[in-house]
Specification:
The complex is a heterodimer of chains A (about 260) and B (about 270). Chain A is built from seven helices and 15 strands. Chain A has about 260 residues and is α/β, with parallel strands linked by helices. Chain A has a ten-stranded mixed β-sheet, with helices on both faces. Chain A has a three-stranded mixed β-sheet with strand order 8-7-10, with no helix packed on it. In chain A, strands 1-15 form a two-stranded antiparallel sheet. Chain A starts with a strand and ends with a strand. Chain B is α/β, with parallel strands linked by helices and about 270 residues long. Chain B is about 30% helix and about 25% strand. Chain B has helices spanning about 10-15, 35-40, 55-65, 85-95, 105-115, 130-135, 185-190, 240-250, 250-270, and strands at about 10, 25, 50, 70-75, 75-80, 85, 100, 120, 140-145, 150-155, 160-170, 175, 195-200, 220. In chain B, helix 2 (about 35-40) links the parallel strand 2 (about 25) and strand 3. The mean pLDDT of chain B is about 95. Classes of the chains: A alpha/beta (about 260), B alpha/beta (about 270). Chains A and B meet through helix 3 and helix 4 of A and strand 6, helix 4, helix 5, helix 6 and helix 7 of B.
Chain lengths: ~260, ~270
């Protein structure tokens, strides 16, 4: 019988799995709101010990028992704190951190980000709803890791309008998105491509933008345990109000049932 | 700490002294003082410049109810979801509300400049971002050539009054945080007057105070002061209430009902 069933979004799971492998044991990571928090959660489930820092001025050395609904959901992480300070302290520490992870609603080949664009992708009517502290940490990051989960490949642009965050010159900037990993900067290139329809779409978009895709390696898809971890994190996130996780868990797929 | 014997005051009294044109800082980054915002609405305050580091749905409410003449924020969205704030969006798109948008670090630096008695402070290099290229900061951020090199600077911001949330405080005005410090200390240092809104009054803390009474003008004992947001170690964020705000949208009647439900929750908590 043919029908319509809801399946977890494999494109999202691939990105969560691949990005979570990037968090090194013992590393200090600035974690921005939304998807970076879920990447961090997947890495925790895999047993990676690391420190995550939120912009309000706190560092966590273990996974909060309850997934915070945002980085400012302070009640959700009372017992995992290994450092507490001010946001200016966080800015002073960012240069020493191993990586800064940010959500990128739209991103361009130079690594410029619009954190929270609203309306149409090109020429949005609302210039920005604000980038919080993303400009501050991006400008100080040595290693900047951006997450974009959109199905709209035009969220990856030649030049973003209404830039809310920009990396410093010489920073190591990589975008983890549906279909692969893209190195951004002066010489952007596709470094990894996922073996999936998303990978093909990403490659087509990058070629359209004039990006070198010839050297991309094939990236291993999410393992079974990574997939299970990712689905569990998405389920937690949906229960904690993450709309993106709700959507990722109910991706409609036509399939035999 | 010198005992300054501050009188405890009520939220109603603390807000009553605010007049049109005042620059009002509503903290904190994260644990937002909905109680202060709702009192401003109840007292039908108008013409205020509101500074809220994380604008969120509280600022969206203040815009909808006509409290704001202008705002300074580092962002304005519903953190649960995350979801857009429709009154903010309408006001910005319609050009009816002057908005000064600073990155959160730049806003903290602006407060630090005021605290230090400086006219401005070097801050995050915002070159290449819309903060500078699109004039989003309302002229608060500039690029300067100095003998020490090119710098981005932000003008000092000194609020007339800052409302800050603390976990517990003494009647003398010493305050203790349980959540991250974020903007709290520097806002207290920068403001002409600081009002602590505390979950609990204590005789003294087990450790040194985070915000000393020297910086504090008044203390308001108001348990549940950041509801429906959460307070570390006290009560959780009410996620369903935040999600419910997305359904309120532009409807003033629904907004009033939403606010009544929040305030009733605070009364029951107290």
């Amino acid at each position: 019988m043919k029908g319509c069933v809801s399946m977890p979004d494999a494109g999202v799971i691939d990105v969560l799995a691949r990005a979570s492998r990037e968090i090194d044991p013992g590393s200090w990571n600035f974690i921005g709101f939304n998807w970076p928090m879920l990447v961090s959660r997947v890495a925790r489930r895999a047993g990676t010990p690391f420190v995550e820092v939120f912009e309000a001025g706190v560092a966590l050395s273990a996974a909060p028992r309850l997934l915070p609904s945002s980085t400012t959901d302070f009640h959700a992480y009372p017992d995992e704190t290994c450092w507490r300070g001010s946001s200016r302290d966080v800015m002073a520490m960012t240069r020493r951190m191993d990586a800064v992870w940010l959500d990128a609603s739209s991103v361009d080949l130079a690594g410029h980000v619009n954190t929270f664009g609203a309306g149409p992708v090109v020429r949005p009517t609302l210039r920005s709803a604000g980038g919080g502290g993303s400009a501050d940490v991006a400008a100080r990051a040595r290693v900047l890791r951006l997450i974009n989960m959109s199905r709209q490949t035009d969220r990856l642009q030649a030049q973003v309008e209404h830039v809310t965050a920009r990396p410093q010159a010489g920073a190591d900037v990589r975008l983890f998105c549906r279909g692969g990993v893209v190195e951004l900067g002066d010489s952007p290139k596709l470094t990894e491509i996922f073996d999936s329809p998303d990978g093909e779409r990403l490659e087509r978009r990058l070629v359209q933008l004039g990006v070198d895709t010839s050297l991309a390696s094939r990236s291993a898809p999410a393992t079974r345990s990574e997939t299970e971890d990712s689905i569990q994190v998405l389920q937690e996130a949906a229960a904690r109000g993450y709309r993106s996780a709700e959507r990722a868990l109910s991706s409609p797929k036509k399939d035999d049932i | 700490v010198v005992n300054r014997r501050l009188a405890l005051t009520t939220l109603e009294s603390a807000v009553a002294g605010i007049a049109g044109g005042d620059v009002v800082y509503i903290g904190n980054f994260g644990a937002q003082l909905f109680s202060v915002g709702h009192e401003l609405i109840r007292q039908q305050k108008r013409g205020l410049h509101i500074i809220a580091p994380s604008g969120g749905i509280l600022v969206d409410e203040l815009i909808a109810e006509g409290v704001t003449a202008s705002i300074t924020v580092s962002h304005c969205w519903n953190p649960v979801g995350p979801a857009p704030t429709m009154n903010f969006r309408d006001a910005v798109e319609g050009g009816s509300l002057p908005v000064r948008e600073l990155s959160f670090g730049t806003l903290c630096d602006a407060l630090a400049a005021a605290a230090g008695g400086h006219p401005f402070m070097p801050t995050t290099d915002l070159g290449g971002t819309g903060y500078l290229t699109e004039g989003r900061t309302g002229g608060l951020v500039r690029e300067l050539e100095t003998p020490f090199g090119r710098v981005i600077v932000v003008a000092a911001i000194s609020p007339d009054v800052a409302f800050l949330h603390v976990d517990h405080a003494t009647t003398d005005g010493d305050g203790w945080l349980r959540h991250p410090v974020a903007d709290a200390k520097v806002a207290a240092q920068a403001a002409h007057r600081t009002v602590l809104v505390t979950e609990e009054i204590v005789a003294g803390g087990p450790s040194v105070a985070d915000i000393p009474s020297l910086l504090v003008s008044a203390v308001v004992h108001h348990p549940g002061g950041v509801m429906p947001d959460g307070a570390a170690g006290r009560y959780p964020r009410d996620i369903a209430r935040y999600q419910g705000y997305a359904a309120v949208g532009r409807d003033r009647g629904l907004l009033a009902s939403w606010r009544d439900a929040v305030d009733e929750g605070v009364r029951q908590h107290a």
